[in-house]
Design a protein that fits this description.
The chain is an alpha+beta fold. The protein contains 15 helices and 19 strands. Helix 9 packs across helix 12. Bound molecules: flavin-adenine dinucleotide. Flavin-adenine dinucleotide binds next to strand 3, helix 6 and strand 10.
């Protein structure tokens, strides 16, 4: 029986995996400073929860790692006992890849910490930190690291998949500011990967997700970002086609100091939104301008000229913009995700977008187009594992609602919307916006980089211990699909 087959069998359910004795579990417990959680423990159910409440998985063991030694012990235990192993960073992943059914979770949520070096302009971030931790620490020095648009997202998953957000046009993806990572490998070794050390591994982790090891620490370059001029601009949905056409042409030509992602949304019924707009379906662009404030009026003049219903753009600290949507999207909602990379946005595609925007099924459901241009385009597709440098947008469609009763409605809308727009897409999708969509999608996403990723995987994780992710299989074809 192969290692893969053994792992694939009989690990579902809350009890001890086959072959596991209470003595073995006790041995692991005594090696962990952070603690071990098992079914039946008072905090077990809470520890199984991830951000997307649609995901309900029950691991056999949750290792709450406090330090690198705990991670080494947990990875070794999973390898020796042939357990499915999941790595939990911020727990935000749409497909629930931070947890597994049966098996062991390396839970990094206690490994949070940030150390800024304001002179070198670098930031050392522990593997279980969330972006709010980083924004808080760097802002004190007038610095920031490019990340996403919500402060509760994990640094681990977001960075290893690429990292798209407010600062991408100016400073590139999160991985473009990554200088080094410390990892625990499948064989238990602890290494640093950077341009100088294990450069093959450093290439692979920049976009290849959690396929290569547990990252216990990230070293980023930080950029001078303090106060920004940002916020949402809203237009009525009746003008969606006109606004989307304008946005398509405007954003690619705009100065790189201006970030702006397009969204369809339902206006939340509360401040800061004016009452007449409450619960109205609208289209929006959420802006982030980091250039010379004296030029802001000029930069935003074309936006104001389009007579928005609300121009909520104002100076604010960068962490305020980064956490602006946290309250709207608390943990515990039902999420259904679909995504694509997009190179062109023809009028015919825009017409289909508008059709589905008119049918937004719930207040939280949305579609975002994140620009991929500016600094992101200055790195070649083969320079890091993130292949789609030549795309112009990452499109993500998410059906979201607090009620499990709406699960079918939001997933149907999302799938229908994606099916209608997929013919206009560039092929693959941003790995961090995908759910469990099969091997073909993973390969379509990495394109020419896939073969090189397989080679690195063979070198560092030949038995595919790290497979609870958008999996790079350490073999060309025919390998077994492993359970998550
Ligand atoms: C509300 C919301 C907003 C988002 N906005 C953005 C955005 O603006 N930009 C963007 O790029 N993405 C965004 N995302 C997507 C996000 O990048 C992914 O969900 C990502 O996987 C989350 O990382 P995490 O560490 O929180 O997730 P987890 O669920 O903990 O982990 C996700 C994957 O990453 C791996 N992983 C996590 N940490 C480590 C580590 N330290 N070492 C090795 N592997 C690790 C896990 O094994 C797993 O496969 C958003 C997601 C949500 C839910």
């Amino acid at each position: 029986m192969t290692l893969d087959t053994q792992r694939a069998r009989g690990q579902a359910g809350g009890g001890l995996p086959p072959g596991m004795t209470p003595d073995l579990v006790e041995q692991l417990r005594t090696r962990l400073r952070g603690g071990l959680v098992r079914p039946g423990d008072a905090d077990y159910e809470e520890s199984c929860r991830v951000y997307n409440a649609m995901i309900q998985k029950h691991p056999a063991l949750i290792a709450r790692c406090a330090d690198v030694a705990d991670v080494i012990a947990s990875v070794g235990f999973a390898r020796e006992q042939k357990l499915t192993l999941a790595i939990r960073g911020g727990g935000h992943n749409g497909g629930g890849l931070g947890i597994c059914e049966g098996g062991l979770v390396v839970d990094l949520s206690r490994m949070r910490g940030v150390r800024v070096d304001p002179v070198a302009r670098t930031v050392r971030v522990s593997g279980g930190s969330v972006w709010g931790d980083v924004d808080h620490a760097t802002h004190a020095f007038g610095l920031a690291v490019p990340s996403g648009i919500i402060s509760t997202t994990g640094v681990g998953g977001l960075t290893l998949g690429g990292g798209l957000g407010h600062l991408s046009r100016r400073y590139g993806l999160s991985i473009d500011s990554l200088l080094a990572v410390d990892l625990v490998l499948a064989d238990g070794r602890f290494v640093t990967a950077s341009a100088e050390q294990h450069p093959d591994l450093f290439w692979a982790v920049r976009g290849g997700g959690g396929n290569f090891g547990v990252v216990t620490s990230f070293l980023f370059r930080a950029h001078p970002v303090g106060s920004v001029i940002g916020g949402p601009t809203l237009w009525p949905l009746e003008r969606a086609a006109e606004v989307m056409q304008w946005y398509r042409d405007f954003i690619s030509a705009a100065p790189e100091e201006l970030g702006g992602f397009f969204a369809f949304m339902t206006v939340p019924p509360g401040p800061p939104f004016p009452e007449p707009l409450h619960l109205k379906k609208m289209c929006a662009v959420v802006w982030c301008y980091t250039g010379d404030p004296a030029r802001a009026d000029e930069v935003f003049a074309p936006v104001r000229a389009l007579s928005p219903a609300l121009h909520g753009v104002q100076p604010m600290p960068y962490p305020v913009l980064q956490s602006m949507f946290d309250a709207l999207y608390p943990p515990g909602l039902q999420w259904y995700w679909r995504a694509d990379f997009v190179k062109e946005l023809p009028d015919a595609a825009i017409a289909r977008h508008v059709e589905f925007a008119e049918r937004l099924p719930t207040m939280h459901s949305t579609m975002h187009l994140y620009p991929i241009d500016g600094a992101v385009h200055r790195v070649a597709p083969g320079d890091t594992a993130f292949s789609f440098r030549d795309a112009r947008w990452a499109e993500v469609i998410v059906g979201v609602d607090p009620s499990p009763g709406k699960a079918r409605e939001i997933s149907t809308w999302t799938k229908d919307y994606w099916n209608a727009l997929h013919p206009y897409s560039a092929g693959g999708a941003y790995v961090n916006f995908m759910m469990d969509e099969g091997q073909e999608r993973v390969q379509a996403t990495y394109r020419d980089n896939y073969a090189r990723l397989v080679e690195v995987k063979k070198r560092y994780d030949p038995d595919n211990l790290f497979h609870v992710n958008q999996n790079i299989r350490p073999t060309s074809a025919g390998a077994e699909e492993l359970p998550h």
